[in-house]
User: Fold this.
Amino acid sequence: MTAVDIAAGVRNGTLRAADAIETSLRAIAATDGDVHAFLATYDDDARATAAAIDDRVASGEDPGPLAGVPIALKDNLCHNGRVTSCASRILEGWRSPYDATVVERLEAAGAVVVGKTNMDEFAMGSSTENSAFGPTANPRNTDRVPGGSSGGSAAAVASSMVPISLGSDTGGSIRQPASFCGVVGVKPTYGLVSRYGLVAFASSLDQIGPFSSTVADSALLLEVIAGHDRRDSTSLDSPAPSLVSHLHDGVEGLRVGLCPELIEGASPKIAERITVAADALAANGAELIEVALPELRYGLSAYYLLAPAEASSNLARYDGVRYGLRVDADDVAAMNVATRTQGFGDEVKRRIMLGTYALSAGYYDAYYGKAQRVRTMIIQAFDRVYQSVDLLLGATTPTVAFELGAKVADPMEMYLSDVYTIPTNLAGHPALSVPFGTAEDDLPVGVQLLGPALSEVQLFRAAQVLEQEAGR
Assistant:
């Protein structure tokens, strides 16, 4: 059942929240041994929460728009009293003393958190192979990666263990695994969803967003978690958008840009799916317009200076003193080194060192400063194109899901998985990936829709059309 169906059934009394949770917990028990999407589940608490929701319904209350819906959280979202490890040894066993804003809003809307999902350590990776607690497999083919860094959240939805989940997207970490696993993944406008309680990787890029099996479920979930939060200084002072009510408005009159830079390098079969998706939008009344964004070619290089630079600053707090792992040594400096050496994995160390180098005296202007100028150039390029089109259509990823272990030894090959998704994060704009058939080895393909800031309504309208066309 979809989240929309579960919530409707619980609210009108035709479905018990307790039954919805039992279905989810049984699916996790039966499936997760092969997939390893979850790092922890909360069976007893989930059952107690569901029972309380059923009691509220019986007494005539409305528990909210997500009443009784099971949901999973990426393990970089703080949940009061629960371990929030970011899939890292350095935070293994650390329990958050508070809830992230999105968790507060989920629970206020009646959702039931059933567990925390696996991820690349501190959200640094594109395959969920960098987790300190072992990799996650793709439910569509368990020899393949689910994508990353939110691979556990994508896999949990793709294997029907939960109907919805939350991930975070810094350079494509929601959209890329959504594409690999054949589910819907949404990266909202920067600031639309509060980052309070999200463990930071790169603060100017991170954004929380939904995974689901349907466009409607993602629209409902985003409505619940979006909106201003005074505890997040980057939160937009605007209400949550009304998405569900506009889902079926169609694409008549929408101008959709086709950009070669969002297809170049994709496998032939993925490029073919983009063409079919464009034709589907045109058949439903959209106007297709050829546009060019040559500046996007510099996005990958800029990102892998800016994101590591922010990470080197954000991760400095894991020093063995205040919380998390502490490896004793003869003095404080030696303790810091020993703690970080033992606590951080190779990819996290690589990015911290790269970011520290880019920010160091003598190299700041040559690397970090130049990357910031490239970021501005990309923002200006998007602004130029969005004067002539409402949305852009392109590939989410250059390939289908690759084999586990295939790119672990080659960081550059791994980084190229995010070549089409990174520009959106640099600009702070929204984008989503919607499943649209299969390509090589009969594996899922996601097509990506991009738009200017706060264009979520138009993005979801187009995504709904593509979902309907893909099912025909």
Observations:
- The domain at 3-246 is CATH 3.90.1300.10 (Amidase signature (AS) enzymes).
- The longest strand covers residues 431-438.
